[in-house]
Specification:
370 residues, alpha/beta, FAD/NAD(P)-binding domain, 36% helix, globular, binds flavin-adenine dinucleotide
Length: 370
């Protein structure tokens, strides 16, 4: 019987594993892929994460992260808005970040099973039985769901959001290009937006969100990029001049921003599994880390103080809502401003004239340092 079984080894799962294992709990983490691997993600992390990460001895800048303190937003016609980022952030690839965190989790004493997925998880009153893809089972008192935005397990748990399809598709490249390393750009195009920012080793992340329909209409990702994205002169320049480092892009479907719940069938959800913010706000990674901080500290307290399961679930769900519900709501509504060419153009022109409003909006989607 483990104290905690964690499903998924992204940022949320790994940070939970590090904190819980260091507190002396018996932790097993199960991740279906083998590290290191690329994920679709803009790889810009808000600086709000740094005090907590530093307290754990985790220093992304030691792993080559780029410091980012300026934002550029462009409309599909090339109208551009620039401003400083009050809090700022850093750029580091998930390829590097996740593998370093895996190493840290193992050093802390967490058992991390990779290349293995959790196929089923059942609660029986005392604890959980998880069935793994290698046909073994594991028992645990608590289970953390940190398996990302959408997985087969959501269907088994009959979670509300899985019944409706999401229209969004995410695409990512690593490139080499000529662009200030302290700037993050958000280039808009019809039915989508594309981020560009530095990561380690002089590389850049180019990552965009668009609709499945936009890709379907043009027949392929490549055709959509040539015919739609490149109407934005900034994206055209990147396409013409940058060196693309992947053979083919990383692509994901079913990116859903629908509301979810933080506890489901007694499983404590963390990161995107509890709720995903639109990439437009650029801080899903910070939220994944923050939700892991909140959950792991309550789990440690519950373990040492002998809380009931009900108390732990109630306290965590309440704190999660207080910390994130407003940001998720703002992100969903801000996202609706983008995609329509004329509306995006008008918004960028308006925000260019009213700088403080633009900074206010950016602040609403970011948290404060934790
Ligand atoms: C296009 C796009 C751009 C983005 N850009 C940014 C950005 O610039 N900055 C930012 O902060 N956020 C960004 N995000 C959001 C960010 O990627 C997520 O919020 C973050 O990855 C959430 O981390 P997580 O640990 O919750 O989930 P994940 O990182 O998705 O990890 C979940 C893990 O669970 C594993 N898993 C799934 N099912 C199982 C199973 N059954 N058994 C075992 N393992 C399983 C998966 O393999 C995966 O490794 C972006 C998202 C998208 C879609």
């Amino acid at each position: 019987m483990h104290n905690v079984l964690i499903i998924g080894g992204g940022l949320a799962g790994l940070v939970n594993a590090i904190v819980l294992a260091r507190a002396g709990l018996d932790v097993v983490l199960v991740e279906k892929k083998n590290y290191p691997f690329h994920r679709v993600c803009g790889e810009y992390v808000s600086n709000e994460t740094l005090p907590f990460l530093h307290s754990l001895g985790i220093r992304p800048h030691d792993w080559g992260a780029a410091s980012i303190d300026h934002l550029q937003v462009t409309a599909p016609d090339g109208t551009s808005l620039e401003m400083p980022l009050d809090l700022g952030g850093y750029g580091i690839s998930r390829y590097v970040f996740d593998e370093k965190l895996l190493k840290t989790a193992r050093e802390a004493g967490a058992v991390c099973l990779t290349g293995t997925s959790v196929e089923d998880v059942a609660f029986d009153g005392d604890g959980f039985t998880a069935t793994l893809s290698d046909h073994t089972t594991r028992r645990a008192t608590y289970v953390i769901g940190a398996y990302g935005k959408r997985a087969k397990l959501d269907k088994q748990l009959n979670r509300d959001f899985v019944n409706s399809r999401s229209p969004y598709v995410g695409v990512k490249y690593h490139i080499r290009t000529d662009f200030p390393r302290n700037r993050i750009a958000l280039h808009n195009f019809r039915d989508g937006y594309c981020g560009l920012s530095a990561v380690e080793d002089g590389k850049y992340n180019l990552c965009y969100l668009t609709t499945r329909e936009n890709v379907r209409q043009h027949g392929s990702i490549e055709a959509m990029e040539a015919e739609v994205m490149c109407r934005n002169p900034f994206l055209q320049k990147i396409r013409q001049n940058a060196e693309f480092l992947f053979d083919k892009p990383e692509v994901i479907n079913e990116v859903s921003f629908a509301p979810k719940t933080a506890v489901e069938n007694h499983i404590l959800m963390s990161g995107d599994t509890a709720g995903m913010i639109t990439p437009l706000c650029g801080n899903g990674m910070a939220m994944a880390i923050h939700s892991a901080k909140i959950l792991s500290s309550y789990l440690v307290e519950s373990h040492t103080e002998g809380w009931t399961r009900e108390k732990l679930e109630t306290v965590y769900a309440k704190h999660w809502k207080q910390a994130f519900a407003w940001r998720l709501w703002t992100g969903r509504h801000l996202q609706s401003l983008f995609g329509d060419e004329r509306l995006t153009g008008a918004s960028v022109r308006l925000l260019r004239r009213f700088g403080p409003v633009a900074r206010f909006l950016v602040r609403q989607t970011h948290g404060t340092a934790f």
